[in-house]
Specification:
SH3 type barrels, L,D-transpeptidase catalytic domain-like, nine-stranded mixed beta sheet, four-stranded mixed beta sheet
Length: 351
């Protein structure tokens, strides 16, 4: 699905969603077989995480599919793996799109962008940072799938980081403003984390830009409209996916009087002076003088340069492995699953 296919995206965001009943801060195990004593093969968060029901059985169980919400303290270490297994049918319920819901969100882990939709239309794009897994913390990988905003947490801390306007959507995962630290005088510093927006950088949460974009949106806008946020879908960055390169005639803008950024519109909140007039140029000219010296605007998040897109696409080429560290961290889980189905013994032929 393409984020620009507004009709398809809106249909996805507003479709009925099946969840497991219960407290959104608790989880349930997904079983390999329709039996409470069967091995657990995945983890599912109650109330806020959507699932796909594949089959409803006559024995009180349903075969379902979702991304495993395995966190650091889970015994099932299926780090953001798409799993199929069984949960009890009587624990399931359907959540309809609420009439109070006005906005739907899509987070794309490939582009590291958050797309905001209203009444079937894409209205804005924001920079984000999703999780950056490492060998010791593979659980940092942001869990993909569909979710409901469960609670309004507000500011919280993570080590020395202050994370403002947190919206909880999947147990320990929140949507929040890009973190800041505090200087000795109490003022905020975003210098370390803000430049990482548009790339993976978090511990699993979704960090959202604080700078207002062309449409005036940022994390504060999402927070102010939190009671009208409906569904949020997080797209997995599957190997083989590619970011389209913009058409050569795509229009970009810059301030010819000393501007250092290139922009996606003829106005931008990065400009603080009055009576500044942008001039247009095309995407095909972006690598030519004087435009080649312009930086990507962190406010309005224009299209990336062709070379940057091609570098990302090279990592995601079909048949490759864009995250070998996470692949290695998942191997013990695959070994565990294989051990649940030992190979059948073969008879030795008679001499």
């Amino acid at each position: 699905m393409d984020y620009t296919d507004e009709a398809a995206v809106w249909a996805m965001l507003t479709a009925p969603m099946t969840v497991v009943k219960g407290d959104g801060r608790t989880q349930v195990r997904i079983r390999k077989e329709p039996d409470s004593k069967s091995a657990a093969i995945g983890i599912l968060t109650r109330a806020t995480q959507g699932i796909r029901v594949i089959e409803t059985l006559d024995n009180g169980w349903s075969l379902i599919e979702c991304y495993s919400s395995s966190f650091a303290d889970n015994t099932v270490k299926a780090w953001n793996l798409l799993v199929q297994g069984y949960v009890e049918t009587n624990t399931l319920t359907t959540v309809e799109w609420d009439s109070n819901d006005k906005y739907g969100l899509v987070v794309d882990k490939l582009t590291q962008r958050l797309y905001v939709y209203e009444d079937g239309h894409l209205i804005s794009t924001l920079l984000v940072s999703t999780g950056l897994a490492n060998a010791k913390q593979p659980f940092n990988e942001t869990r993909s799938g569909e979710y409901i905003i469960g609670s309004f947490t507000g500011e919280f801390t993570s080590g020395n980081l202050y994370c403002g306007m947190g919206l909880r959507y999947n147990d320990g995962d929140l949507l929040h403003e890009v973190p800041h630290t505090k200087r000795a005088d109490g003022s905020k510093s975003y210098a370390y984390n803000e430049p990482k927006l548009g790339t993976r950088a978090s511990h699993g949460c979704i960090r959202v830009q604080r700078l207002r974009n062309t449409e005036g949106l940022n994390m504060k806008w999402l927070w102010d409209n939190r009671k009208h946020l409906g569904r949020m879908v997080i797209w997995e960055d599957w190997q083989g996916r590619q970011i389209p390169i913009p058409n050569d005639d795509t229009v970009l803008y810059y301030n010819p009087n000393g501007g250092s950024y290139y922009h996606r519109a003829d106005t931008c909140y990065s400009v603080t002076k009055d009576n500044v007039t942008f001039e247009s140029f095309t995407y095909a000219q972006l690598d030519e003088e004087p435009y080649s010296k312009l930086d990507f605007c962190p406010y309005c998040a224009p299209a990336m340069r062709k070379a940057d897109i091609e570098a990302i696409n090279a990592q995601y080429v079909f048949g490759g492995d864009h995250d070998p560290i996470l692949t290695a961290a998942r191997q013990p889980y695959f070994d565990y699953i294989a051990s649940l189905d030992p190979p059948e013994a073969t008879e030795t032929p008679a001499p």
